[in-house]
TrEMBL record:
Gene: LOC106747405
Name this polypeptide is given: Glucosylceramidase
Highest taxon above the source species: Eukaryota
Species this protein is from: Dinoponera quadriceps (South American ant)
Example of a GO cellular component annotation carried by this entry: membrane
Coiled coil: none
Gene Ontology BP terms: glucosylceramide catabolic process
Chain residue ranges for the region called Disordered: 1-28
Keyword Disulfide bond applies: no
Length: 572
């Protein structure tokens, strides 16, 4: 056999407002989701249990009473299906406590299922499977830090365009116990392209004492939402806020431009003081910064025609600034953030780290590497393996991703695009299989045009705000992230998941999976990009029997079963 690691209800009145289905009546849509379906594959049987029937059976099966989830309100849009949320309603799924020799699956499909719950049993009978995924809980890899998104100016302004109850629904969709359970939030230090204007906190030329340093109105919105997030998180202490600056004030740079150029050496200490003032200002608002990078995408600052905020750093200048100016300044003020190197594309890995870490002080200071997903297809995932092998004690974090960013993509926002959800989940799975400890999205929310962006660099977002109806859309990208972030909390561990195939001559490259040991059990995330379903078996020698299921065409599945006691104890 060929083996390959990891590849291959209720309240209808509230729902009805502003939620007209396209192509079918509202009651037809509700009725469709209340059908009970039974599937048999080989000798394995499992049930799909939507609606009220699902709740009744979960009460009988689960170790503790399961709360009935609220179904997605589907709306057909130009490129697929979105789920609609407003001030009184937003879909969620319940937590299911599985018993010994049971498993639960949550499945989303291009055709419109969103986290449909099925419960089944391990089986000792014969089953014919296209793909077998062998899970080995004794082979443990990296610790998982979590998932999240960026509270940019654009995200804050779009959220603010909703009524307050709807704003809270959106925040809950990401950070609440019933939502994605995000634990990361990236906060830009001053302006980015996703602001309404180019700015920093000290734009008065020659202000050598930074007496005119000041946060802006957008910071007040972002700080308010950060507090809202932490209030509803299952564990407030899990929140990790990290920051980066796109550019120093233009007058501190050798080009006098916010869009390109390097920081003048004579302003290194002044810029360190500028960053300290940012930490102070957020601390005064009870916001603690967990981590930071020297700057966003420093390569951009090399190009005179670059269209938005950027500042050049070399590996050497970044290392020198952080070790000689920034760290001493922040430490003296009582701040000891986690320092992450790079914050640029994967093609710099690991070479730029090799240069930075020629400085022993820099090698000690930077405990992690941050990188972005753009142009990932052009550069092998083996770069991440090489980085881990060279610096095994330093974590790797993916800190920015979005779709619609390519110059070749005419439509920046593609409402309901399943393909864009696939891009997200494929990137998450593949990167987790290569030592990445967390995955952080870009804008938490944008409007239907991918705005605002002062440089007209519009892109897509997992949540699109529709203020005219006081509602927001959860796109397939949202659910792609949810399938991992909801079920793989901080301090989980990736474990071995090897593929084998019934027919080695068939192409199963569109089926991908990754497995984790969590405090709730074994979690396996599976994606099928093919237009046909596949029969998949899960084999775990620590369990009695196996799991067999049919992975629908164009689908995401999260599968959970109880972990053996020794799960994740041995580390590769």
């Amino acid at each position: 056999m060929q083996r390959k690691e990891g590849v291959g209800g209720g309240r209808e009145g509230d729902r009805a407002r502003n939620h007209t289905e396209t192509g079918s009546s509202w009651r037809e849509a509700i009725g469709e989701r209340k059908q009970e379906r039974c599937h048999r594959i080989g000798n394995c049987m499992f049930f799909t249990l939507p609606g009220m029937m699902r709740a009744v059976i979960l009460l009988l099966i689960a170790a503790s009473a399961a709360v009935r989830g609220d179904d997605c309100i589907r709306r057909k849009v130009e490129y697929g299906i979105v789920c609609v949320c407003n001030s009184t309603y937003c879909d969620y799924v319940p937590d299911v406590q599985v018993q010994e020799n049971q498993y639960v699956t949550y499945t989303s499909t291009e055709s419109g299922q969103r986290l449909n719950i099925s419960i089944g049993n391990f089986s000792n009978g014969y089953s014919s499977c296209d793909i077998t995924i062998t899970v080995d809980t004794s082979k443990a890899f990296q610790e998982i830090f979590g998932f999240g998104g960026a509270m940019t100016d654009a995200a804050a302004l779009n959220i603010r365009n909703l009524r307050e109850p709807t704003q809270q629904k959106l925040i809950e969709a990401y950070y609440g116990a019933k939502g994605s359970r995000y634990t990361f939030c990236r906060i830009p230090m001053a302006g980015t392209d996703f602001s309404t204007r180019p700015y920093t906190y000290a734009d008065t030329p020659g202000d050598l004492t930074l007496s005119n340093f000041s946060l802006v109105e957008e910071d007040n919105y972002k700080i308010g939402y950060l507090h809202d997030m932490m209030k509803i998180m299952p564990n407030r202490d899990d929140m990790k806020i990290f920051t980066t600056s796109w550019s120093a004030p233009a007058w501190m740079k050798d080009t006098n431009k916010i869009t390109w150029g390097a920081l003048k050496p004579e302003y290194y200490q002044l810029y360190a003081d500028y960053i300290r003032k940012f930490f102070d200002a957020y601390k005064e608002k009870d916001i603690d910064i967990w981590g930071m990078t020297p700057g966003n995408e420093p390569l951009d600052g090399y190009f005179p025609i670059f269209p938005f905020n950027a500042m050049k750093w070399t590996a050497t200048t970044a290392a020198n600034f952080c070790t000689k100016n920034l760290q001493p300044t922040l430490s003296e003020a009582g701040y000891e953030p986690t320092y992450m190197a790079l914050d640029d594309q994967r093609f710099f890995i690991p070479e730029i780290l090799d240069i930075m870490f020629k400085s022993d002080k820099a090698k000690e200071l930077f405990t992690g590497t941050a990188y972005h997903w753009y142009a990932n297809k052009l550069f092998s995932l083996s770069r991440l393996d090489k980085l881990h092998n060279e610096y095994p004690n330093k974590f790797i974090l993916m800190t920015e991703a979005c779709t619609g960013s390519s110059l070749l993509e005419r439509e920046k926002v593609k409402l309901g695009s399943w393909e864009r959800g696939e891009k997200y989940l494929q990137d998450i799975i593949e990167n987790m299989l290569h030592w990445v400890s967390g995955w952080v999205d870009w804008n938490l929310a944008l409007d239907k045009h991918g705005m605002p962006n002062w440089a007209k660099n519009y892109v897509d977002s997992p949540i699109i705000v529709m203020p005219e109806n006081d509602e927001f859309y959860k796109q397939p990208m949202y659910y792609a992230l949810y399938h991992v972030s909801k079920f793989v909390p901080r301090n989980s561990t990736r474990i071995s998941s090897e593929f084998s195939y019934k027919n080695c001559f068939e192409d199963y490259s569109n089926v991908k999976a990754v497995a984790f040991c969590t405090n709730e059990g074994i979690v396996i995330v599976i994606m099928n990009k093919d237009n046909i379903p596949h029969n998949i078996c899960i084999q775990d020698d620590a369990m009695s029997g196996k799991i067999c299921l049919q992975q629908p065409e164009k689908s995401f599945t999260t599968l959970i079963y109880r972990a053996p006691q020794e799960c994740g104890k041995s580390t590769i």
